[in-house]
Sequence to fold (381 residues):
Amino acid sequence: MQWFHLLLAFLSLFAFGLADNARGPVFPDLLRDFGVNDSAGALFFFTTSLFGLGNALLSRFWLPRWGAYLSVRVYLATQASGLVAMGLASHYVGVLAGAALFGIATGGLGVAQNVLVGRASEGAGRRRAYSFLHCMYGASSLAAPMIVSAFYAAGVHWQQVLLWLSVPSFACCGLTWFRRALPGDRRGRAVSAGVGADRAVMLAFALAFGLYVMSEILVATRIVLLGRREYGLDAVAANGHLTLFFALLFAGRLLFVFAPAMWPPLTVIRASGWLSLAAFIAGLCLGPDWLAWTGLAMAPFFPAAMAHLQETFGARADGAMGWAFTCSSLLTMLMHQGVGSAGDAIGLWGAMWAGPLALLALASLLSFGPLGRRVFSATRS
Fold:
């Protein structure tokens, strides 16, 4: 186990999570200050997802040349620059330019951090390392709305909040200069090699992973707006629902770190998909208090999916990871624009039923049909 490189991956994901999950709490004030409707406001998230998609697609080129370690450094600097651009923007176009930089970083870090953990860990410790990595995202997700609420209570403008949240990203970028990359970090053509006969399995995994990420981000970015617009909550109360969502997400992932590996990863992600579907429907029917509980149902999906990817694809895991993050960026991009347009047409509550539909497709893909059986067979072989 290469502990420095694991620590870097953990801290860099924490810094990313703080910035990423601050966007939901500041979103209502962004709409107000720039006077944009839901459709135009959705471009804030759509732009990030679009550029994240583009960079994830390009990972087959930059990852072999730079390696995971240098890639983390580059994209941490890009992420911090995007936050600064959004924090200093005087027009909505400037915010979108910062969102584009942030998207480039999102697509790059999503691949590079997970690849770095795979290369810095081994054996039975790898599954726990992935679980702890995504605990960091859960912890930062929990901290982000509380930090935003604390800044708001102190009278800090939302753009200044984004400027402050660039500091952890710059700090982690500086940390990368203290060590060299792992031997063999640059692996030539390994990222794109050997898809071949596994293409259907890889696409099935990528689609399921993308549907999950889309559903989680839908809750994370819209639960505050739903509470404020549909239920008349103030900023602090609405942020409290987001805090509960992330607290449950963090608690579930932390439990997954220490729980014995009683079930194979595919069993875990299949169960998570069905439970998340039930929780999302209950939340839309019963209110944002209940919607926050989707965090607990979703918690094990991401680390179990990463472990499943490593076990199933082995040396081809880099390529499978690129497909997965590409698919998640594409679906998230479509979700943001679709939910924004649907929100103007039928209201935010109706638009958010995209979440249960995505989770139904995810759970069905992993449980039924030829692709679901192939994924299961690949895991058992």
Remarks:
- Residues 3-380 form a domain with the Growth Hormone; Chain: A; fold (CATH 1.20.1250.20).
- DSSP finds 18 helices and no strands in the chain.
- Residues 189-197, 374-381 have pLDDT under 50 and may be disordered.
